[in-house]
Amino acid sequence: MQRGDGADAFTHLGPAVRRALSERGFDTPTEPQRRAIPPLAEGENALVIAPTGTGKTETAMLPVFDAIAEADPRFGISALYVTPLRALNRDMRERLDWWGEYLDLDVDVRHGDTTDYQRQKQANDPPDVLVTTPETLQAMLTGSKLRKALSDVHHVVVDEVHELAASKRGAQLTVGMERLRELAGGFQRIGLSATVGSPDEVGKFLTGDRPFEIVEVDVQSKVDFEVVEPEITDADTRLAGKLATDESIASHVRAIREIVASHESTLVFVNTRQTAEALGSRFKELGDPIEVHHGSLSKEARIEVEDQFKAGEIDALICTSSMELGIDVGRVDHVVQYGSPREVARLLQRVGRAGHRSELVSEGTVIVGHPDDAMEALAIARRAEQGEVEDANIHHGSLDVVANQIVGIVMDHGDVSARRAYETITAAYPFRDLGEAQFREIVREIAGNRLLWLEEEKDVLEKSSGTWQYFYANLSMIPDEETYEVYDISSRRGIGTLDERFVVNFADPGETFIQRGEMWRITDIDEEESQVNVSPIEDPAGEVPSWVGQEIPVPAEVAGEVGEMRAVAEPQFAGGADPTAVAREFTARYPTDQYTASRALDPIGKQVEADQPMPTDDRLVVEGQGRSVVLNSCRGHKINETLGRLVSALLGQRTGSSVGMEVDPYRVEFELPSGLGTSDVVEVLESTDPAHVEALLELAVKNSDSLKFTLSHVAASFGALKRYQGSSRFGADRLVAALEETPVYDEAVREVFHTDLAVPETADLLADVQSGRVAVVTAQGHTAIGTSGQSSGREFLVPENADASVIETIRERIRNDRVILLCCHCTEWDHQTKVRRVREEPECPECGSTRVAALNPWDEETVSAVRSREKDEEQERLTKRAYRSANLVQSHGKQAVIALAARGVGPHNAARIIAKLRENEDDFYRDILEQERQYARTQSFWD
């Protein structure tokens, strides 16, 4: 239901609040206030969707403050303000406190860091309005004094509701609100959000499918985007030399500097912490007043840069999603998004940080540097301007949340009938379809884990000795990973954090990494204190590892629009249209300039010129050369991931060999065993029964690391992990076997499917392929579009008993990989070739030296650094790495070239591999494979 009226919304409020409005200088309501205050003042449930900076907090709280001020005095808490942020925006806290003081109402905050004294005070003398988190609400519902205080709740405001709707935290909160409803009776529910793609669905999530209003302020009139690929200038050439980078990256740095210089306060959003650190180190080298902000920095470091930015001491912050949810950094007048934002909602949320109450248009620039990136950003910017936001990805029926909340309900009541617990949980929208049989299975599982007693005859659930301990250890549905503090032993200060998986899998003494834009070497790891001790290094001799944060998945709708853009441009190029004219047409539809559009369209023109088929939204193109086969599919990350796993599993099963797989939103690249090619991939697409996709994928993910990791966290939520003494001692494979026939395993599979895959959509795609609605065509060799994807890591799906085949696949792949050979003696000669063509003892044809480095084919920066006469710190580091590579090749010949050509193996790790004594050559390749797997695992730990 939607409604919008109330030209003078403030007349719906009582005299005390209207006097306060005059005192605050609020003469005219903002558009959200004008439209939302009338229904909210009448006590209706509502979802309020409006850009950041349009007064959403006051929109919700003015009618709530008014209702409390006008009501008879109550003993308990009248309103809850639930926020996903643990640390409430300081500006918002000050505003709420002001309203409370003026209206003689007590406003307080409660979260995990609230002192015992303050908690006791709140229980004995409850505030009128309590600001809290979803997790703290769980704890409050079980305290005897607080339950009495909560029985007076008449209003619940949920901030950033879109963020909660897509998480298990949110699913848990929906049941928490139903538990609160049993205690307090019906209460008004108000949701606040800057961006929502499916308002009706999110409204049902908020209210439990009870009646509600949607108040949505049109977003397209509030944002202004420009997508830009900077043209390379002479200044960029000079800057590239100074920063020891290529001219393209230098142009990006220069473009960001120009935007920052022309605005007072700029946020520069990036998609991973690694990118934030890399970009931040460039600006630090240039001496620019720009700092880095992300979740792995210490709390003190984050607050320090937030305060500096707010005070105008620094001009810009380079930040990740840590800055999306309303952290108070003062006024922002421009937002830069570096690289495609991946999602419409993310772009709107980020650019929405710019602008303020009196200036409602938020301005943002998206800087791109790759055709895929540019086309994707154009599609997202257009969709954002039209308000075409992705649907909320609600966790429907997450069974570990059910287990957690059954224990919570038992904590509420002491003992409770199973029927009452079932009805409470299924009143929450995400659990409306939970069946009784499945509910009883979960009850038996957690009773078996001694989280409660089940009186079968009476059908009653009772507290057990383990109930209390489990509940307070599992207030949060955020996976409980240990965090290690990173401690600089030279300055004796904390600099940030690393997560447990990263420390366990990668962090050994002597390893190096970047944080806060600086390089560090690990001295030792203190397990008892959960601390990684480090020392700063200015010029590491070993290879500095590069970690790529887990990619934000590009939705199918965005990738599909990129396919549509190709379909529009293809006939124009084929008809002989001038590329400038084609680009000009795109600038009329998309917010970009002629140069950026031309660069984005370049691979399409090349594809047409080569007379190769064009991958579009309704055409899949399978291309291949040797063992490398690319399935071009404009279907987004999740469908392509699902297709990739399906094809890999079926072809791997057929041959008993590993299938390498690499996925991006527009293609799936396979590395097939000998004897397989494009026709085999086409055959899987055309013959696999869509009805069998789910069952085939469940078999395929059974042995995957993602399922095992997810299973360990789900098992903890069910209280099952303690039976097996923790996954590290018991073993992940045995954990899978032990839990396979339980709700724990079912939930782990559901979560992997929900988070990583798109099973129904992939089944629909196969049905469309087999009906002819989507064409599948093949191309000979590799095409311009097929080879223009950006590498995003590689996963090997290894069947059991396939060891010999795996080793052969690795050997053949590396033999066909390319390397740059560079003479580090005369530095005049370099040559790119395949590994198999490298001589057993490489030498320079110019000077005869055997001091020849083997570098990755994209590592032109290192070649330039070695040849540079005037070296800065970065060039020195690259030069030393090249010399280490050359020393290895000089000592070990082609064996060193092979090790250095493997993925994620630099000189440091290559030396380790070569140094091991072995019985035969196969063991050498096994060690390379293990290092590649290690690299694939550690890639995702940085973000």
From TrEMBL:
Stored InterPro entries: ATP-dep_Helicase, DEAD/DEAH_box_helicase_dom, DNA/RNA_helicase_DEAH_CS, Helicase_ATP-bd, Helicase_C-like, Lhr-like, Lhr-like_DEAD/DEAH_assoc, Lhr_WH_dom
Domain Helicase ATP-binding: 37-214
UniProt GO MF annotations: ATP binding; catalytic activity, acting on DNA; DNA binding; helicase activity; hydrolase activity
Pfam families per record: DEAD, DEAD_assoc, Helicase_C, WHD_Lhr
Alphabetical UniProt keywords: ATP-binding, DNA damage, DNA repair, DNA-binding, Helicase, Hydrolase, Isomerase, Nucleotide-binding
Gene3D superfamilies: P-loop containing nucleotide triphosphate hydrolases (3.40.50.300)
Domain of life: Archaea
GO process terms (BP): DNA repair
SMART domains, per the entry: DEXDc (SM00487), HELICc (SM00490)
Helicase C-terminal domain: residues covered: 255-407
Protein family membership: Belongs to the Lhr helicase family. Lhr-Core subfamily.
Protein name: DEAD/DEAH box helicase
Lineage: Archaea, Methanobacteriati, Methanobacteriota, Stenosarchaea group, Halobacteria
